[in-house]
Amino acid sequence: MKSPTPTGSKGKQRKRRRRASQIGPSTSGAKSLLLRAGLAGLGSARLWGEKYTMPKVLALPGDGIGPEIMDSALKVLDRLAEHAQMSFEIDFDLLHGASFDQHRTFCTQVVLDKARDSHAVLVGAVGGPAWDNIRLPGGPENQDGLMFLRHHLQTFLGLRPARSWGPLVSQSPLRPERTQGAEIMILREMCGGAMFARDRGLGLVDGRRRGYDLTAYDETEVERFARGGFELARQRRGRVVSCDKSNVMESYKLWRAVVNEVAADYPDVAFENMFADNCAFQLMARPGYFDVVLCCNQLGDLFSDLTGVLSGSLGMLPSACLVGDPGLGRCFGIYESTGGSAPDIAGRGIANPLGMILSVGLMFEHSFARRDLSRILDQAVEATLAAGYSTQDIGGTATTAAMTDALLTALDQQLRAADRG
Question: Are 145 and 230 contained in the same domain?
Answer without folding.
Answer: no
